[in-house]
Design brief:
heterodimer; A: 114 residues; mainly beta; seven-stranded mixed beta sheet; four-stranded antiparallel beta sheet; B: 119 residues; six-stranded mixed beta sheet; globular
Amino acid sequence: EAQVTQNPRYLITVTGKKLTVTCSQNMNHEYMSWYRQDPGLGLRQIYYSMNVEVTDKGDVPEGYKVSRKEKRNFPLILESPSPNQTSLYFCASSPLPLQSSEQYFGPGTRLTVT
Amino acid sequence: AQTVTQSQPEMSVQEAETVTLSCTYDTSESDYYLFWYKQPPSRQMILVIRQEAYKQQNATENRFSVNFQKAAKSFSLKISDSQLGDAAMYFCAYRRGGAGGTSYGKLTFGQGTILTVHP
């Protein structure tokens, strides 16, 4: 089954404790992206990647890191999480060229930072 | 920068009735795509319908259709014969066209509209 998976689905952590949210897709998509969803703000892009070793900042990259060492994986790293990073996170992937292609979303990761 | 605005935080509809969700956007681009996503309580993001800006004809997917007014930068979603399973948060989203460049592929989302369907 074609899908985007994220782990963990739920995470409660404390301020400053490094964490990684994994994202993997099995559709051989070149394009991958991370979004965060906050009430009243919709979803906002954090980082995106056009292909292996090619990443770039989105609208809200502060406090986050990403890597793209393999085509299928695009982990989101929070080196020192803070309470304002409490949010719902989504990974998405799409083939290139994008044109009108659908972006496939993962199931979301609910992160709480205390 | 592109912006997307959904001015209706909440909407409600009776089962089998029709409801329209509003969305406006701002862009200086001529090549772009517009989308409506549905987010049920499961939180999964589900693509409902898409519209290419260069197409004058409004997109339709079964009970879902859009009213795309390019000059007015308006992109509303009409749900006909509403069903209980349509209850969800709905997001309008914009993506610029072209190939490559900064923020290529980025979806810009509106704030969302919560749709309640009454039996």
